[in-house]
Amino acid sequence: MFFKGLWIPIARPAVLALVSIAVIGCGRGETDAETAQKVYRHAIDGAPASLDPAHADNVYAATLVKNLFDTLYRYKYLSRPYELVPNLAEDFPEVSEDGRVYRIRLREGARFADDPAFPGGLGRAVTAADVVYSLKRHFMSETRSRGGWLWRDRIVGLESDATIRSADQSVAGLAAIDERTVRIELTEPYPQFTHTLAMALSAVVPREAVEYYGREFGVHPVGSGPFVLNRFDEAMAVLEANPGFDRGPVDLAAEGFDPQRHAGYDLEPIDGKPYPLVDRIEVHFISEPSARWTSFASDGGVDVVMVPPELAERVLESRSPLRFKPAIRERYRTLHGLEAGFVYHGFNMANPEIGHSADPVRDRKNRALRCAMRDAFDWSARNEAFYHGLGRVFPGAIPPVLAAYDPPFDDDSVTHRPRQARQRLQSAGWTADTLPPMIYGLEASIQQRQMFEQFRAWMQEAGFPPGHFQPRSFAGFGEYSRAIGQRELDFFLLGWTLSYPDAQYSLQLFYGPNAAPGANSVNYDNPEFDRLFERASTLPAGPERTALYRRLNRMIIEDCVIIGSLSRTRLYLWRPDVRMFPDREMVGGYFLRFVDVVEDRP
Amino acid sequence: MSAGGSRGGFLLDRLVTATALLLGVTLISFTLTVHFGPDPTWEQLGRNPTPEQIEQVRQALGQDRGFLPRYADFLLRLARLDLGHALASGEPVVDLLARAIPVSLLLLAPGFLIGIVLALALAMVAAWRPRGFVDRLCTIVSATGMSLSLVIIVIALQAVFAVWLDWFPARGWRVHDLASYLRHVTVPSLGLIVAGLGYNLRFFRSVFRNVLHDPPVRTARAYGFGDGRIAIRYVLRAAAPPILTRILVAVPLIVISGSLIIEKHFGIPGIGMVTWNAMMSGDQPVMMAVVSLSSVLFVLALSVTDLLTGLLDPKVRGA
Amino acid sequence: MTAPVTLRRRLAGLDRLPVALMAVFLAAAAGVWCGLWGTDWSTISGTLREPPSPEHWLGTNRLGQDILERLLAGTATAFEVGLLVAVASVALGAALGGLAGFHAGRRIDTLLTWVIGTIDAIPFYLFVAAIAFAMRGWPGAMQLAMILSFWTLTARLVRTESMRLREREFIAAARASGSTNRRILLRHILPNLAPLLLVQASLAFVAAVKAEVVLSFLGIGLQDSISWGIMIAEASQEILAGHFTNFIAASLALFVLVLSINSLSDGLQERLDPRVRRTPTERLA
After folding, report:
1. Domains of chain A, with CATH numbers?
2. What's the structural domain count of chain C?
3. Which of the listed residues A315, A330, A558, C17 has the most CB atoms within 10 Å of its CB?
4. C241 and A313 in contact by Cβ < 8 A?
């Protein structure tokens, strides 16, 4: 009757639509790739938004960018401390006597991957002009570069107000002398310059592709790296070996292989083989720590996991010395190490209520307040609750991973002393009524909320009235950085990841001219500090510079500018059929090109 | 009034309503997300920005312009179906939607459809024999289902099926053939079914009960027509308008926001996850595209409902 | 005019168990409001992750805070959020719905219908997150967002209902006897709507409590407070490590509270009009 007439017209299109969706959804070009022999499934704890090297200032983007593109230099796979090695460059730069002029020669045979952006769709050789263009585009407004600050004021012709309107505009300090030689002139010596050329931000891009894709370059990366992009969305990226990439065989000894230190990782078989060694890499973006573990623990999940502190108990036999459980060591390969970075709490020194004050009496009083809060802060409880006691607490801002690290000269600044805190407040004349209220900034995550509750409990113990710290949470990191950049917060938690192994990179957090919105989020303003920092900046590595760095570090401890810091310990587990050393610190994702999986893997 | 005239009038009426609705939705959303929303500028900056750079980015993003010109600009682009580019990646928003929406549909369709069919079948049996075993069971199931939060369901299901039993992948979306699709879609679908069953069961049962009270159905039952025939020919048909309305109106909500928790928890790159990321980073073009799309879907769903109701109900038809 | 009396009589015969359960929850919340317990939810009173003991009946969490304290304080939060959102959204819905229905067909009705349709067409999470952003850290942002989103459901019903009432004889009689519009609204229409509003309020209460869990899970919930949603969100990170107390305590409390209110509201509806049963709002199921 009616019934038939009703349902058919509804049902048929619905079924058709479903079927077509299923076909579209399922046929996403993965079937052929799945037959590839060697697949490695990597996991990182966040998703990059853009794969344009000019935006790659975070570890997530850098992990991918360093594999899709090439940088002039990179760090050796296995050497620690980190050692630079030429990558796209043929050799180390020739630096002039005064340390200001660099000549860099490119290696022969490096080619951009095939892409419709090139005439005929065929990739072409990487030239010196590409290197010049790649640096120059950081200063073009349409690039929206996140890395221009690394080279601004450093390269002649890119002084503070210089902008570049067209890619053809010449820059005095940046020149391609011939097809394969770049000449870079600096305004003053910049000993860390070569390190910046190993950062993902400096990766070399072809101008044709940038102009062809325009704003979409961030999702259509075209580079000369070991891999090309096959898929990229919010959940994962799929990289495939770039057939045109040829760097010869892996030289394990040159990469810093040490049979003792790297025993048990089964790395020897990759020696002498051309790399990249796998056909396909899936990089899964999994921000929730427990989800990363879940995926690793289930069949067909990711091959590697950075063990979340909540689960450290399950895999560790002892914390100090750090040892994995025998059952874990049998089933997986393991690695642990400190991060090249740290977390710290900062004060807004620009707020005269708690920071610098023109009135010397008030200035001293404010310092007592900050130091009292630092005394009341219990790093070991923080470490225990959130890092399973595996973090390394250290005074100041030079983390243990750096050569300039000051072996604990004085742990006073990271020791919990609630009584001393009370005394400090009292003798400086602070009472519950006069203590200035503070705005505590946090990102709206469960962990940061818990950290705030912990912090508040310590401060109450030291005599701060309840309700004294007003939490203000921000849903996204962008909003949080805006609030810090606009100096709306008095006290906040920040992390800082080193991009090169030099204390200059973390001490710049306190350099006056970098004040907010710059990297000096605490708005520390100390002319003496600035003078010494400037002096250290042009010095080559050596005992003099190290001594200066340590002196700078002590200044910020002395002034109670931050409460900190803590470097997290990373625990990695991976399946035994993967041959690798997955240390992502500083090196970023460089190790991915050396990852191998055993042949007869399911 | 001739049939053609009434249909034309209906369409025109719909068009006016739809346009008004679309304008309202975009105006409110634009005010909230663009005017009061997070400033996307800071998401686009490096680690050591200068005030000049910030100003430059603000200008590039149009953040320095007034509300009205920006809203007008947005409407003009929307009228040309130009959704712009995502701020963070530069990906065209159309591409972004085209890759995210199929994922969401694939993810949600089985749970949604099975849930509806299951609820319809159970509700029919329950309504048929009030206070029978199935009716009592339905009361318990719907009370339980409605009291559970999707968050709790999802956490628990993942822990049980994907971690302890390890029958299904715990998360992710690596779908390339039917088998992998089924493996990935099962646990989320279970979650959707459990979360929706309580509400659907209750709604359908009360609709069926009302219909079973109707004189024609009573007569048919009294005449001893087969149960199956009555259930399908009379009850289901008479109950179709409210049921279809419910299903159709649920579709836009499911497509846009219903999937948010599931996609976030299971790490599936569908429209819910895209929307969430855009919201957190203040990616205005993406947010506005999602809002506009959902209101268009909403209007479409309402119109289709009206049309179907008209087709099904002889009273409305004859008028 | 007899509605209030009827309502009281109708309320009298509700199921015992849900009433008893509600009383327990209310007592727990009242204790928090009076400062008897649940005031130390933020205090670190023990060591990390203690198992249940006489001092900490449900053990402690990763910071060493007492889980029972947090559960009790969360109960109070649930009632605060639920009651505020229920009362405000129903009041707003009733006022605007009544206004629209009373002036059906006029410009104000068209405008309000448009607003209602518009708000219903915006995806809920987007709407709430946008309001939360717009309010930038104001503690009531989440509640405001829920109110602004929930009132439309009541408004639709009240609009239809008051359009129907408008045509009834006693209204016509009142109008004939010279009553003002306001008087008619307050004395005649509103009392007749009371049962409907009560049911709507109970549904809004449940929706608000459940929405709080979802929003806290997503990280856009309450600011400086403790709630079941926050506890569940905290728990979601530790379940795998074998710490269930937080999760079970908070989910169970939520489940029982919602179940009780749902069944109360069911009983209420059955007594009001056995044929018309409303399904709780499930925008946030």
Report:
1. 14-280+578-597 (3.40.190.10), 341-444+475-567 (3.10.105.10)
2. 1
3. A315
4. yes
